[in-house]
Amino acid sequence: MPAFLAALLILAQAAAPLAPATLEQDRLTACMDEARSDPGQAIITANEWLEGLSGAATAYPQQCLGFAYMGLLRWNAARQAFVEARNARPIDDRLERARLGAMAGNAAIAAEDFVLALPLLQAAQTDAGEAGNNRLAATIATDIARAQVSMGDPSEAADALEQARQLDPQSGEIWLLSATLARRMDDLPSAQSWIETAARLDPRNLSIGVEAGVIAALGGNYDAARSSWLSVIDTASDSPQADAARTYLAQIEEGVPDR
Fold first, then answer.
1. CATH of the domain at 212
2. Of 160, 231, 249, 258, which is least surrounded by CB within 10 A?
3. CATH of the domain at 161
4. Over the stretch 54-82, which tens digit does the pLDDT of each residue have?
């Protein structure tokens, strides 16, 4: 599963209920469960639920509708449903507005509509900050960086990742993303420093091991590169990361691996 889709699923499932109405909570849970198994039927269920509703009451069915559209890879429809769900939340419900806005932004990224994704994600990050949830704000900052890279703005993406590191300095994933972008921007000293931080924070992350090898190889430290990649292979020989490590090991015999 692509990383952005995994993150989107986590956000979709983490969004908390609008109110302590147990019946509505149960209905949302049932609708989202249906979306996982039969997204087409869940779209019907959510639309029937929406009938006659207005305002804040539409947030639950719109959230389920967005989740169902995700299952069918109908990203534009999912984005619109998540936007509707976000807008239905009370203005002071910053945390849930942030989560739903982030879902909308990620759906736009999945549709490769990065120009549309950016303002959605920026608004979501503002909401997360107002809610005092630095971890969510940091995660959204990485989404912003991903959109900016796709738009050909690596410097802007680097700024977003710097903000993410400040907001959640204990996230190995953020340091990994920072190191990868620095490496692609030919800033090997920063890449090396940041991948070392990532490895200290999350030593079991195989992707960090793969990236550490690439950075070492590009810096001319081939022994360290081989060691990193062999460690990944020894740890999880059947993983996608191990396959990538084997590819890099083969490349290193012919020259510097592809960036």
1. 1.25.40
2. 258
3. 1.25.40.10
4. 999 999 999 999 999 999 999 999 999 99
